[in-house]
Design goal:
By secondary structure, the chain is an alpha/beta fold. The protein has helices at residues 22-34, 46-49, 56-59, 75-91, 102-111, 139-146, 176-188, 199-208, 232-241, 251-254, 268-282, 295-300, 308-311, 317-320, 342-350, 355-373, and strands at residues 38-42, 64-70, 96-98, 114-120, 149-153, 191-193, 213-218, 244-247, 287-289. It has one domain (4-373): TIM Barrel (Alpha-Beta Barrel), CATH 3.20.20. Strands 1, 2, 3, 4, 5, 6, 7, 8 and 9 form a nine-stranded parallel sheet that branches. Helix 1 packs across helix 15 (342-350) and helix 8 runs parallel beside helix 9.
Length: 374
């Protein structure tokens, strides 16, 4: 196993776009080695179940990864997927551990393991489909709480019983059931994620929730004008709520043509621009990181059958950008693999953030939310 405390990256990949002095390089290395590094959205289990990628998170110095266990699937299927993650972690417990609390994440850092935070990207798995929704309780949700699921995204791209996703033509906002669900999530200490929610659903959820909410993987719409990103009004509201926005490296969220939504080639500096923008709007203590990146999917050269590119981009270029559907555009130069995550710290040093601010962005801000919610 590669020790996260000695994670390195190939400097040739960013020497041309990141300009640090030797002293700044030493500072960046120390900060990345010592810090809690959280990737709030890892959309694949490949880092657990594929030998070729099993050390990538460690090589990037990742302390905790929010692994998407399920999205728009049934309760039985989601349960199977969660159990599969837990089994894989147990099978490779020299590398990984399941984290249900911020304390678990800190313990993983001490043990030189990567903590897996189990997350859902829709609420479909918790809905009892065998009876009317308002008659149902939250026994499915409580079951997932006992299984260690800690982050629940209210909607994916489509409309559900809670509210609207970002690919709906009409957003009716947070439903009555959605309010009850947020109350129960607050009660259980599970984090509310709004990454894919439509605009009205996003704002109403922020305004209704007592506990901090998060966007585990998003960007600033002011910089990349796609509806997967969050408006300044939403970013500011998340800051006032006490939550965080996890800045993503997913190409449409990073850089698009403002006129026709075409995804444009980006670099780590474009990602850092989103960090700066969220910090300016909400405060630096409300910035986090959520890559929404899979090294395996990028290396395969094709998008999987369930990919949003295939299923939503053709009809919603204003949400997912304009571009191919059968493969991903290149992720930002200098930050296009998990093994390059030390470059994020280097970039934050170059941008002039303090040590405390950098530790916050890398992971402490997300852990603060997890602690407060629980």
């Amino acid at each position: 196993m590669d020790d996260p405390a000695t994670a390195t990256t190939d400097p040739d990949s960013t020497d041309s776009i990141l300009d640090l002095t030797p002293a700044e390089e030493r500072r960046a290395t120390r900060l990345h080695d010592d810090s809690i590094v959280v990737d709030a959205c890892v959309p694949t289990t490949a880092y657990l179940d594929t030998a070729e990628y099993r050390d990538h998170l460690q090589r990037g110095g990742v302390t905790a990864a929010g692994i998407t266990a399920a999205s728009r699937v049934s309760f039985p299927e989601a349960t199977r997927k969660v159990e599969r993650i837990r089994s894989l972690v147990a099978e490779h417990d020299d590398l990984f551990t399941v984290a249900e609390t911020a304390t678990d994440v800190r313990a993983a850092k001490d043990a030189r393991k990567t903590a897996i935070v189990i997350a859902f990207q829709d609420t479909m798995p918790i809905i009892p489909m065998d009876r009317m929704i308002l008659e149902g309780g939250f026994e499915y949700l409580r079951a997932f709480d006992r299984l260690g699921v800690r982050v629940i995204q209210l909607t994916y791209n489509s409309l559900n019983y809670v509210g609207a996703g970002c690919c709906e033509r009409v957003d009716p906002g947070l439903s009555h059931f959605g309010r009850r669900l947020i109350d129960e999530l607050d009660h259980l200490g599970m984090v509310v994620d709004l990454s894919h929610c439509g605009d009205r659903t996003t704002m109403e959820a922020i305004e209704y929730a007592d506990d901090p909410v998060v966007c585990t993987h998003a960007g600033a719409r002011a910089l990349s004008n796609v509806e997967r990103n969050k408006t300044d009004e939403q970013i500011e509201a998340i800051g006032k709520n006490g939550g965080v926005v996890g800045v993503s490296v997913f190409p449409p969220t990073v850089k698009t043509d403002p006129d026709n939504y075409a995804v444009q080639e980006a670099t780590i500096h474009d990602v850092l621009d989103h960090v700066d923008h969220v910090a300016d709007v909400a405060g630096v203590e409300h910035v986090a990181f959520g890559s929404d990146m899979s090294d395996q999917s990028l290396d395969s050269g094709t998008t999987p059958p369930y990919a949003a590119y295939r299923n939503f981009r053709p009809d919603f270029p204003e949400v997912y950008g304009r571009g191919p559907i059968d493969h991903y555009e290149p992720f930002p130069h200098g930050l296009h693999r998990h093994t390059e995550l030390p470059n994020l710290t280097r970039g934050l040093v170059e941008r002039g953030y303090t040590d405390e601010e950098i530790r916050g962005i890398l992971g402490e801000n997300f852990l603060r939310v997890l602690e407060q919610v629980q």
